[in-house]
TrEMBL record:
This is cyclic-guanylate-specific phosphodiesterase. Residues 29-282 form the EAL domain. It is found in: Cell membrane. It comes from the Bacteria. It comes from Oceanospirillum multiglobuliferum.
Length: 284
């Protein structure tokens, strides 16, 4: 280990300092991992739901489920602070199943209450994308009685590209269950346009990195309009995420992007606040 070797040569005190730091980092990680494991069992995870609207009609089309951790001491923690840890430790398998079940239960609850049908999108991480995913999704759909055609599975290019043939097979099986597939963070991973055609996709989600500087940044204008026209010719719906300004929304609408998600329209909401939106969407 280069850092350790260097420190050793600078004398004993430094050596102890470095190993101490490293021990703290390792034990912090372990205790965080244990806390998360406990947290899942103790029902400390919560889902927020961010609405996605049809740009043309303004109608609520669906929501994306986004996980949060209500930590007993640290308060509300965002996914960027624990999803990577869950992925490294393998906990993402249990966490991912919890998220899917919770989202489907919530969706089924809304349907039972007579609210208009909306789609629920759930993020699937690379580690979940392996043997057992299809049977897990199938089991959760059966248990919760949530209609598969209301479920959207969001996954990234890198998840699919790491083993493209396996991905095609798995996506075909997920589609056979009735679920929809959305390619998340499109344009940020290493994508192969040839595979875009071979993957059985329904939606392309334009990453918010490309939306942020619209409509002023000429490169982002070129990239987003190319993505939208590519999607149209491949018969895919486009979803733009991270929309924060009316100018961004107007540009995307003019380019023919169909669906919109972002702080301008709605922040991620707790379930009861989604019900308000659903209420507004009800015919009188
Ligand atoms: P993502 O899938 O790209 O989700 C969208 C993120 O963008 C969310 O952050 C959302 O709050 C944020 N966002 C939405 N609109 C705007 C906007 O207008 N401006 C800005 N600046 N941000 C906006 P969040 O909830 O912190 O989630 C971060 C990431 O964590 C997600 O990125 C996703 O990759 C991951 N994640 C969240 N929930 C899950 C989950 O249940 N499973 C897995 N595997 N990953 C999850
Ligand atoms: Ca997503
Ligand atoms: Ca995204
Ligand atoms: Ca992202």
């Amino acid at each position: 280990d280069a850092a350790l070797y260097h420190a050793k040569n600078q004398g004993r005190d430094q050596y102890q300092f470095f190993t101490h730091e490293m021990n703290v980092a390792v034990s912090e990680r372990l205790s965080m991992e244990n806390a998360l494991r406990q947290g899942i069992l103790r029902d400390e995870l919560k889902l927020a739901y961010q609405p996605q609207y049809c740009i043309e009609t303004g109608r609520l089309r669906g929501v994306e489920a986004l996980v949060r951790w209500q930590h007993p001491e640290k308060g509300l923690i965002g996914p960027d602070q624990f999803i990577p840890l869950a992925e490294e430790s393998g906990l993402i398998i249990a966490l991912g199943e919890w998220v899917l079940r919770e989202a489907c239960c919530q969706g089924q609850h809304w349907l039972k209450q007579g609210y208009p049908t909306i789609e629920i999108a759930v993020n699937v991480s690379a580690l979940q994308f392996r043997e057992g995913l299809v049977s897990m999704v199938s089991r959760v759909l059966t248990e919760t009685e949530f209609p598969p055609q209301n479920l959207v599975l969001e996954m990234t290019e890198s998840t699919l590209m790491s083993d493209a043939n396996w991905a095609i097979e798995t996506l075909d099986e997920l589609k056979a269950l009735g679920a929809w597939i959305s390619l998340d963070d499109f344009g940020t991973g290493y994508s192969s346009l040839a595979y875009l055609k071979r993957f059985p996709l329904d939606k392309l989600k334009i990453d918010r990195a490309f939306v942020r500087d619209l409509p002023d940044d000429a490169e982002d204008v070129a990239i987003t309009s190319a993505i939208i026209s590519l999607a149209r010719s491949l018969n895919l719906l486009t979803v733009a995420e991270g929309i924060e300004t009316p100018e961004q929304l107007a540009f995307l609408k003019q380019q023919g992007c169909q669906l919109a998600q972002g702080f301008l329209l709605d922040r991620p909401l707790w379930g009861q606040d989604v019900e308000q939106r659903l209420q507004q969407a009800m015919p009188d």
